[in-house]
Amino acid sequence: MRKNYFIVILLFFAFLTNAQITIQGVPRNDVKSKTVTQKQVTAKSANSTTFSDIQFWVGSGVNQAAFVVQWNDGKTSDALVWGFKWDGTATGEDMIKAIAKADPRFFALLRQGTQYGSAIGGFGFDLNGTGTNGLYKDGNKMYPYYPFDGLINTSEYDFDSYTGIDADDHWQSGWMVGYWSYWVKDPVDEGYNYSGVGASTRELQNGSWDVWNFNPNMEMFDIATTFTPVAPYSKTIDFSKGYFIVNEDWFGHVNGSVNFVDNNGNINYRVYSEANNNNSFGATTQYGTIYGDKFYFVSKQAKDGGDTQYIAGGRLVVADALTMKKIASFDDIGGGDGRSFIGVDEKTGYIGASNGIFLFDIANMKVGSMVPGTGGGSQYLGQIGNMIRTSQYVFAVKQSTGILVIDPKTNTVVKTIAGAFHSVTQAKDGSVWGIQNQKLLNIDTLTFTTTEYPIPTTKYLGSWGAWNAGSFTYSNKENALYWNNNVSSYVSGAQIVRFDIATKTFNENFATLPGQTGTYKQIVYGAGLRIDPVSGNLIVNTTESGFGAHYQKNWVHTYNNTGQLIDTKTLNDYYWFPAMTVFPDNASPVLNSILPSQVSVVNPIIIDLKTVVSDEDNISAAIVKTIKSNSDENIVLAAINANEELVLTPKNNGTATVVISFNSNGKVVEKSILVNTSTLGRDEFTKVQLSIYPNPVSDYLNISSEDEVTDVVIYDVNGRTINTRINNNQIDVSNFAPGFYIINISTEKAKYTQKFIKR
Questions:
Q1: Residue span of the signal peptide, if any (predicted)?
Q2: Mapping DSSP to helix (H, G, I), strand (E, B) and coil, where does residue 51 land?
Q3: Distance between CA 166 and CA 58 in Å, rounded?
Q4: Taking every pair of C-alpha atoms in the chain, what is the biggest distance, in angstroms?
């Protein structure tokens, strides 16, 4: 009797053992009480998809396997398939991680490091292409979870607690009320078999198929009869078409970042990190600027100690402006925290820091010594703010001191304009302006005298305590300045203010930010206002007032130059803390008026350089003019005076070539002038001023010359002569086809050749 009882007990435990379900290798007695049947552990029906159907392959090697995810959420396309290649040995987990890293649309929730290996808690896929990959846990929107290399990690079997940020994407996760069942098929198998082990233990074979099939509410779905191949991920971004948004990012969690908004309205996130294998900037990236072909990102600190995902880049990061590829990075920029950067010439830049201005060797990528006279004061009482480069000087704001005027030829401070300034900028006409709490000051660029213009009612209260570049800015299309009003040093107002430089009038209600109803309103953050140099549109970055999760709400608004809101973009929910917008520098300076290619000099002559060059996407008045070379100073002396005039002084009979360099924000063009002094003897002092305008031109091309114009011939790009007449030094080109033209102009004294563009 006792023997029979023992046999019954063994059979009972054998039954329990056979009935027990393992999910990814984890024994689950609790699953038996759910609506689970034997159907879950039987082979699935055959599938018509083959390896030749797979389009997106990850990895390399002689072995290949297929990876399928079937969400069973009613969204199409479901049951997506990728391919994986490798050499040697690989597991199902290796395949998941490789695909998640290679395809930014796909991400996974994992619990790693358990006694059973890694447990797969959830899979997601960006169906609508918005790039909104991320999770909320227990509905908590204050602290979202974002994938890194395609993975989000958890330390518990809390998979049921997660929901996708974007409800229109694929997302399924679970452990207790739904779970991912794991089905595998190796080359020797006729059909799919339920895997009794997890992805970490599953060893792939050449020709394996792994299918992850979600069971919502423990309801079983058959494996799909066909799988949808995932299209290869290809995202080539043209960084010349759109604009950048430099972000402080989430202090205490992640280093600084930069997003890019292309001309189609697509928002591309973390483009520097994407281009540089998860490298980032330093902590609290507050400034960015493009000079020449390089992008300079300045952060307050070298790294964020809370960032465990991205590789910190330091206080200064230099990248290629067209590819975002890293060129150099620096933790130490002179001992202080980063503030700003300005290009001085092709070889030198200035780094603004909390303890002064430091030279930067652009050619050799090296931080140099402090510019004398720019240091002094504590970190928050002597820091450097914004800097601008005019055609002759650098103007730099220094807290509690004023605006420092620096001669970039000698790197010395030549003047300090005392006052409590918040920012400085340069207008389209070349005039320099500083802003204080409730006044503008125009600074004469030669004498440095100031003229005050009180702001009628609103205030501009910059934030020196937690410095940002501020909203004080200019338009490259009209002679006007813009900024946002402030409620306090840390709270922006809702108004955009415009100052007309020609009329010296303020419009304190130029535009109002949207979202000004309710308890939590849209506010400008950081340097929230900048102006597109080509279109003239205003780009305004706003976030939501309040605290916590409110700062995850971010918008980009576009206004035209009449104050009309013409576009709004909503960023993915995240603590971006946008610092400033930066526009690409695509255009090079154009010699858009006629400079003589050769000139005869018998007495000193002057050629005005202020009007002979322009730049579509930079301030033309700020273009730096220098003598690059003079082939023979015994023949002629060449110099550029304070009025930006080229002075040619003959010395002896002969010829020499003088090369003039025009530097517009790091982009350089040159002009060679052959100087002939063989006819010395005249006593008069000659001043040569000859130019054509406007260029580009739509209707009438004007010729300005002190000498009488005797003949004009115009050629198209094919060398054909275009019949035309000159009337009072004006040519009607309204019927010309759009394109480039060459114009030969003869005067009583010389002949000139130049190009112009017909719109």
A1: 1-19
A2: helix
A3: 26
A4: 140
Query: In the numeric block, which tokens belong to residue 270?
Result: 């973390």
Beta sheet of 538-544, edge-to-edge order: 267-268, 257-262, 242-247, 578-582, 522-531, 538-544, 554-559, 565-570
The whole-chain average pLDDT of the chain stands at 90
Query: CATH class for domain 689-759?
Result: mainly beta
Q: What is the pLDDT of residue 19?
A: 52
Segment 695-739, tens digit of pLDDT: 888 888 888 887 888 889 988 867 788 888 888 888 988 889 888
Ranges 23-32, 307-316, 476-485, 539-548: which has the least confidence: 23-32
Superfamily holding 587-687:
Immunoglobulins (2.60.40.10)
Phi-psi group of 323: left, alpha or beta (phi > 0 → left; psi -120 to 50 → alpha; rest → beta): alpha
Question: What pLDDT shows up at residue 190?
Answer: 86
- The helix (H) or strand (E) run that includes residue 102 is helix 92-102
324/114 Cα distance (integer angstroms): 39
Dihedral angle at the C-alpha atoms of 632, 638, 639, 643, nearest 10 degrees? -160
Residue 164's pLDDT band (boundaries 50, 70, 90)? very high
Choose among 100, 112, 15: nearest CA to 56.
Answer: 100
Residue pLDDT, tens place only, 620-631? 999 999 999 999
CA nearest neighbour of 521 among 487, 475, 563, 480 = 487
Say whether 689-759 and 420-572 share the same fold: no
Give bridge partners of residue 624 from the DSSP assignment. Answer: 663
Residue 53 has pLDDT above 80, yes or no: yes
Q: What confidence tens digit (pLDDT) does each residue in 416-431 have?
A: 999 999 999 999 999 9
Residues in the chain: 759
Tokens of 91: 């597991």
Q: Is 501 left (phi over 0), alpha (psi -120 to 50) or beta?
A: alpha
Q: DSSP for 573-613, please give it.
A: SS---EEEEE----PPPB--SPPPSEEE-SS-EEEE-TTS-
In which band, very low, low, confident or very high, does the pLDDT at 746 lie, cut at 50, 70 and 90?
A: confident
Boundaries of every domain in the chain: 19-229, 238-331, 420-572, 587-687, 689-759
Question: Of 358-367, 394-403, 672-681, 686-695, where does mean pLDDT reach its minimum?
Answer: 686-695
Q: Is the peptide bond before 696 cis (omega within 30 degrees of 0)?
A: yes
- How far is it, in rounded angstroms, from Cα 530 to Cα 636? 45
Domain 420-572 fold is Methylamine Dehydrogenase; Chain H (2.130.10)
Give the separation between CA 316 and CA 337, rounded to whole angstroms: 10
Q: Is 262 helix (H, G, I), strand (E, B) or coil?
A: strand
> Is 124 within 8 Å of 96 (Cβ atoms)?
no
Does 15 score more than 50 pLDDT? no
- Tokens 């003949």 belong to 711
**Is 394:411 a contact under the CB 8 Å cutoff?**
no
pLDDT at position 358 is 98
Which position has the higher pLDDT, 608 or 751? 608
- Per-residue pLDDT at 44 exceeds 70: no
The CA angle 507-461-258, to the nearest 5 degrees, is 95
Distance CA 23, CA 195 (A): 8
The Cα 482–Cα 476 span in angstroms is 12
Cβ neighbours for 356, distance < 8 A, ≥ 6 positions apart: 334, 336, 370, 371, 374, 375, 376, 382, 384
Q: Which residues contact 622 (CB under 8 A, 6 or more apart)?
A: 388, 389, 390, 391, 426, 430, 664, 665
Tokens 């010594």 sit on residue: 369
Q: Give the C-alpha distances (Å, rounded to integers) separating 51 from 48, 63, 144, 758.
A: 10, 12, 37, 56
| Whole-angstrom distance, CA of residue 470 vs CA of residue 466 | 11
